[in-house]
Amino acid sequence: MERAERIPFVKMTGSGNDFILVDNRNGLIKPEEGPLFAKKVCRRKLSVGADGLILIEKDGEVDFSWRFYNSDGSEAEMCGNGARCAARFAVLKGIVDSPSMTFRTLAGLIKAEVAGERVRVQIPELHGLKLNIDLRLDENRTAKVHFVNSGVPHVVWILDTKEELEKVDVVGLGRRIRFHENFSPAGTNANFIWVQDRQSVVIRTYERGVEDETLACGTGSIAAAAITVALGLTDPPVSLVTRGGEILRVFFEYDDGRFENLFLEGPALVVYEGSLWDETVR
Ligand SMILES: N[C@H](CCC[C@H](N)C(=O)O)C(=O)O
Q: Does the predicted interface ipTM exceed a cut of 0.85?
């Protein structure tokens, strides 16, 4: 990257899942530089710090394209909370001239609708739904889990009580699932949920590529909503109570294994704007 003394960015939070957003339509950060740049700027205390980096790029057909990186520098196909932040960022920065837009991700085209601080994004599709998997965790323990890809891969483990959800070792068990041979080589995110009632689920998520629990996960919320509806435990729209306390809402129609018109809705807030000094990303 030719040395740009300072790189303007906006820090945003999608229900506690936090991101650094950069308008990279000038191509300053080259594709091959993305992973290391992301790893450096997402370090808490040593740089801006975030769960992920979002680079907005030019696109010849739709409003814009994006590159999404987890804080470990891995590029992910999609990010639900990040998509909501990217849509609001595009409106605030005049990258689009309408509150409705379409942008390109590795998981396909995302339609977004910005209404003030709240954003709805339409997820292209769910695939690979697999219910009631007996997952061997170690020689003495198996867990009944479920799987779906909601833009990125997600395992969902349903716990019986709120207390169990409070006490579960999200990082220890989450890491075991994330690196489980069943899901290699791509790995998976791991969600632990408790079904509060037919309209709401409390969720905690261990995120692949952050390698820790995050305060919210958009695609994880979609996965949990889809799986609990498919199991007959909830009815859409489903509210997801995230670890940060914010509520994410997932809308869709479900009929005999088919999910239609999948939307994720929730707040996407600006925390601050800044300019990144070159000396901390060399
Ligand atoms: N860490 C995820 C990508 C971000 C997902 C999450 N932040 C969301 O809001 O969907 C992965 O690598 O699969």
A: yes
